[in-house]
Amino acid sequence: MKLSVVIPVMNEEESIKPLFEALQTALSGVEHEIVLVDDGSSDGTIDAIEALRTPNVKLVVLNKNYGQTTAMAAGIAEAEGELIATMDGDLQNDPGDIPMMMQYLHDHDLDVVAGRRAGRKDGMMLRKIPSAIANAIIRNMTDVHIRDYGCTLKVFKQDVAKNLGLYGELHRFIPVLVQLYGAKMEEVDVRHHARKFGTSKYGIGRTFKVLSDLLFMVFFQKYSQRPMHLFGTLGFLSLFIGLTMNIYLLTVKILGEDIGSRPLLSLGIILTFIGIQLITTGFIAEFIMRTYYESQNKKPYIIRKIVGKH
């Protein structure tokens, strides 16, 4: 199988028929399968898919709504293609861009090609501006320099897609996960269409979820294999400041001054205990990290290739 197209859907009943038609037209010259993942739809999405399903279409029905990331991970796990493309099911992504992205991946010897929505057809205040701000923050904090983190349309080599480790709401941080995997990735312009059916599943409220996930991704990117470097540094800094305050106050006390009512005493004690807790957390995180790798015989590295005789 050359290509698997993974499409999470939820309450997209009206989009299914034109989606099938667009995929058939765009991929007529490519050996492919389509993996549709229903993420807890409450309308007739499943019936619409089953009515139009052909032998190369696989339907994965989740027992409830888990979110786009989990649905995407379920679809990738079922995909069998050498290349795996991901896209939304609302027809805002254009399947006609997939062959171009496959060719670009091959010509440039890449592992991932990410779509960059040209002429994005979304609302300015609620979608474009918040997205631009989020993209800038993510770029600066993760040092992964692409322009459009929110475009679902991507093409992966199979081994990269299946080893991304998609959990929670991390689909918008796939470029960061790709970098952590050590894969080669570039962006290309893709078409973007206005939504014709249904309503968007995203609102301005997701901003806080993005910021929370961003903090996790920065930690995971920089300290997943050396958590003691973060917790230990912060812990020793807090411990040093706290002990310095306490030694100063002890000296003042010996000289005969009253220190019981000084706020500095409480701050020094609190910083000392925080420092001890952070250092202890660092040790625990180190043990958890080592247990994770050693218990599953995992390696903290990925070999791209080996040249020469074995």
TrEMBL record:
Q: Which InterPro entries match?
A: Glyco_trans_2-like, Glycosyltransferase_2, Nucleotide-diphossugar_trans
Per the record, GO CC terms? Answer: plasma membrane
Classification via PANTHER family? UNDECAPRENYL-PHOSPHATE 4-DEOXY-4-FORMAMIDO-L-ARABINOSE TRANSFERASE (PTHR48090:SF3), UNDECAPRENYL-PHOSPHATE 4-DEOXY-4-FORMAMIDO-L-ARABINOSE TRANSFERASE-RELATED (PTHR48090)
Q: Where are the transmembrane segments?
A: 230-252, 264-289
Q: Does the record bear Iron-sulfur in its keywords?
A: no
- Which is an annotated GO molecular function term of this record? undecaprenyl-phosphate 4-deoxy-4-formamido-L-arabinose transferase activity
Keywords associated with the record: Cell membrane, Glycosyltransferase, Lipopolysaccharide biosynthesis, Membrane, Transferase, Transmembrane, Transmembrane helix
**Record protein name field:** Family 2 glycosyl transferase
Q: Does the keyword Oxidoreductase apply?
A: no
What positions does the domain Glycosyltransferase 2-like occupy?
4-164
Entry's Gene Ontology BP terms: lipopolysaccharide biosynthetic process
Kindly give the Pfam families that the UniProt entry links to this protein.
Glycos_transf_2
